[in-house]
Write a structure and sequence with these properties.
The complex is a heterodimer. By secondary structure, chain A is of the alpha/beta class. The two termini of chain A are about 35 Å apart. Chain A has one domain: 3-Layer(aba) Sandwich (Glutaconate Coenzyme A-transferase). Chain A is globular, with a radius of gyration of 18 Å. In chain A, strands 4-3-2-1-5-10-12-13-14-15 form a ten-stranded mixed beta sheet, with helices on both faces. A three-stranded mixed beta sheet of chain A has the order 7-6-11, with no helix packed on it. A two-stranded antiparallel sheet of chain A has the order 8-9. Chain B contains 14 helices and 13 strands. In chain B, the strands form three sheets. In chain B, strands 1, 2, 4, 6, 10, 11, 12 and 13 form an eight-stranded mixed beta sheet that branches. A three-stranded antiparallel beta sheet of chain B has the order 7-9-8, covered by helices on one side. In chain B, strands 3-5 form a two-stranded parallel ribbon. In chain B, strand 12, helix 10 and strand 13 form a beta-alpha-beta unit. The chains are: A alpha/beta, B alpha/beta. Chains A and B meet through helix 3, strand 9, helix 4 and helix 5 of A and strand 5, helix 6, helix 7, helix 8 and strand 9 of B.
């Protein structure tokens, strides 16, 4: 029996990410934990979930090990289709990508994500991040957006400083339609301590699950806006020994992402 | 260009009013950062279209096509098939007030940014139209952070699809292209695209301007002497950049026979007329990776990034300058540079890490 103390935060995120993914889908993945989560899903409940890597591959077989980035040559190993960025983003714009699986620095009550800068202003940022990359296009046009984020008050904010990746905008029902994007928008936000979804009527972030031993109140304390709590809110499932073995030996054996030190800036 | 159409971001954004107004003026007074689509066409029309021998050294190609003030379209994607040998020669030759255009890139941008910070009279970039400037797993780019934080560079932010399809529009001879992203994000307000009501569907649709760089620089797996190119693994946006650019210098790991190209014409990803110079250069994307040839040299990315980060934190340029003095200005050719900076056994290791991916050179 695995106890929660045996599971590190990154393993918890990867396992939870895996649980969220359904079989017979196409998952457009970002670097790091999304790749690991998707690999775990393929090894367990979703053997026919296939990946898009934005440099241009579809349904590769990751037998050379975890790609270190979405542009890694390994991400093209034994793919069924290997082209470039236009090809896979157009497949996505057309409606063939079920999930966007992205990260970010800040998320808000309506699931908008900032990954362009932190602190200061857009014109003079304290820390300029690399930019949108694929994230903005994935959040616009994959059918459902799944985001991975560290659960901290400064990251879960009422309104992000800059919308890099569109969520529900200002929360109005026609925000995405007026934006001209095609996907249905935010679906899940995954952290090591909680799993969030979005309320259908208000499009606001809603707590679905929390880490065993925590409480909805404890999660609320880490979020800078008022969370909706799902009527059937429950504890998060913990990975089994087999799940941990897969994560540690098959998905990220070198521990590039799962054994990172947790750094507080 | 003003359309009077916006998504609801205009009433919701947290971006300062003056920044939005400045960006709106940039849309209103729109200028292509490089040849206009008409000018790009004129350049294409003026080229001789026969199957000529376009082989030359990178140095000669750069001497011929690099000029002050031009827009350089950079191929590859993050750390994959990045045209480092070409960028290295561009930095050595020097040019001022350059614009860079790319979707996602790492060391090409950081190299030229670092060279500018050390030797601003020799080489400089004034702006970039981009989606992403960083190293992925290795971390964010310290010099982008420095340049942006000190307002030393003008940026025009798109998504990876946005930049890719801007090159595609350029490659199609079109002035713009409609897309289903950027709208509703703050990029709608700060970049140079515009929202419009589609005359057919009535939907709000975002338009991004074509990007036709003056000079495309790409590195590919193999090509014949005329410029017909094969690419294995990710195409990235190299075919689009090559076709969009006024002129394109293409380095390749190996030159193959024209009869090989003709045996499998479906494998040609870039047709010869859009290529102006073919430069055979082994390890031409190091420390980046080339599918079927070699993998990333993670150690070098980390090493160079650490020099840049030290500069950002301390303001001291001494180590960064020493790097350029020894490895750029202290070497005649890319081959000399590679011999000096990477141990042979490291290259052997990198080949082993990715050399088994199957590619077709015959």
């Amino acid at each position: 029996m695995v106890s929660i103390a045996d599971v590190n935060p990154y393993e918890m995120i990867a396992y939870t990410g895996s649980r969220v993914l359904e079989d017979n889908t196409i998952i457009f993945v970002g670097t790091g934990l999304p790749i690991i989560a998707a690999m775990h899903a393929q090894l367990t409940h979703a053997p026919n979930a296939n990946l898009i890597f934005e440099a241009g591959s579809l349904a590769s077989i990751l037998e050379q090990g975890m790609p270190m980035s979405v542009g890694d040559t390994r991400a093209f190993r034994k793919a069924v289709f290997a082209k470039g960025l236009c090809a896979v983003f157009e497949l996505t714009q057309r409606g063939y990508s079920d999930y966007a699986f992205i990260g970010g620095a800040q998320v808000d009550i309506y699931g908008n994500i900032c990954s362009t800068f932190e602190g200061g202003t857009y014109a003079k940022p304290r820390v300029r991040f690399p930019g949108s990359g694929g994230a903005g296009a994935m959040a616009a046009n994959c059918e459902k957006t799944i985001a991975i984020m560290a659960l901290e008050k400064r990251r879960f904010v009422k309104q992000v400083d800059f919308i890099t990746s569109i969520g529900f905008g200002d929360g109005s029902p026609d925000y995405r339609e007026k934006a001209g994007v095609m996907g249905s928008g935010p679906y899940r936000v995954i952290t090591n301590q909680a799993l969030f979804g979005f309320d259908k009527d208000t499009r606001r972030m809603m707590l679905l699950e929390y880490l065993p031993g925590k409480s909805p109140e404890a999660i609320q304390d880490l979020v800078d806006f008022e969370l909706l709590i799902a009527p059937d809110v429950k504890e998060m499932a913990i990975p089994t020994e087999h799940d941990l073995m897969l994560l540690q030996t098959k998905c990220d054996p070198e521990g590039f992402f799962l054994k990172r030190k947790i750094v507080d800036k | 260009m003003e359309t009077g159409v916006n998504s609801k971001i205009i009433g919701w954004t947290k971006v300062e009013k003056e920044v939005v107004e400045k960006a709106a003026a940039r849309k209103r007074n729109f200028e292509y950062w490089g040849p206009t689509p008409r000018e790009a066409r004129k350049i294409a029309v003026g080229k001789k279209k026969g199957l000529s021998d376009k082989r030359m050294t990178i140095k000669d190609a750069v001497d011929k096509y690099l000029k002050d003030g031009i827009n350089i379209g950079v191929g590859g994607f993050v750390n994959t098939r990045v045209p480092t040998a070409l960028m290295w020669n561009i930095i050595k030759k020097g040019a001022k007030n350059l614009t860079l255009s790319f979707q996602s890139n790492s060391i090409c941008n950081e190299w030229i940014a670092g060279a500018m910070l050390c030797y601003p009279e020799h080489i400089s970039i004034k702006r970039a139209e981009l989606a992403w400037w960083g190293y992925e797993i290795i971390g964010i780019a310290p010099l982008l952070r420095y340049l942006a934080g000190n307002e030393l560079i003008e940026l025009d932010d798109y998504t990876n699809y946005g930049m890719s399809v801007r090159f595609k529009a350029g490659a199609m001879g079109l002035p713009f292209i409609p897309v289903r992203d950027h709208g509703g994000s703050d990029m709608e307000l700060v970049n140079r695209g515009v929202m419009m009501k589609c005359p057919f569907s009535g939907d709000n649709t975002y338009l991004v301007p074509a990007c036709n760089p003056d000079l495309g620089i790409i590195h590919v797996t193999a090509a014949d002497m005329h410029g017909n190119a094969r690419i294995f693994g990710a195409l990235c946006t190299c075919p689009e950049i090559a076709q969009a650019a006024g002129h394109t210098i293409m380095s390749c790991e190996t030159i193959i026979d024209n009869m090989a190209i003709r045996r499998y014409p479906n494998l040609t990803e870039i047709p010869y007329p859009v290529i102006d110079a073919v430069c055979e250069q082994q390890f031409g994307a190091w420390p980046g990776a080339v599918y079927g040839q070699y993998w990333f040299d993670m150690e070098h990315f980390l090493y160079f990034r650490s020099l840049c980060d030290e500069f950002r934190k301390t303001g001291s340029k001494s180590k960064l300058k020493a790097y350029y003095d020894e490895y750029f200005f202290g070497c005649d050719t890319w081959d000399d540079f590679i011999a000096k900076i990477v141990p042979h056994k490291k290259l052997t290791f990198l080949r082993k890490m990715d050399g088994q991916q199957p590619i077709i050179l015959s």
